[in-house]
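Sample pair:
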Amino acid sequence: MSRVLYGERSRNPLARTVELTEDGLRRGGRTTPRAELNLGAMAEAYLRGCWLGGGGTERPLASLAEGPGIVPVTRVTGTTTPLKVRRAADFAHALGESAVRGCGGADQVAALAARAHAEGVPLWIARRY
């Protein structure tokens, strides 16, 4: 069983809670494996103090609500899924730190960004396997 990095609890058994683990992201009854998340793009934006949104837009991490809010999650395909969470800032920090670790650290994230820049493709579109 993998460690929970962010989790929500509810007394309502029908509530759509979010749980981020080392293996993936579970929201409601759906699970997104870690391999389907664009960790490189989210980690690069996170290290610059921003959060990656739809279409490559970015907003400062400080603008995310401490309470309930919507945090966009970018998939490997380049699509972004808005995710309703109860603690938006906590979720974004947990996912950002997890993305940096999943990429191999800040140096590896910088190398991915440099490679995408050299190819002339934004990192949120570039597929990295």
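The chain is about 30% helix and 25% strand.
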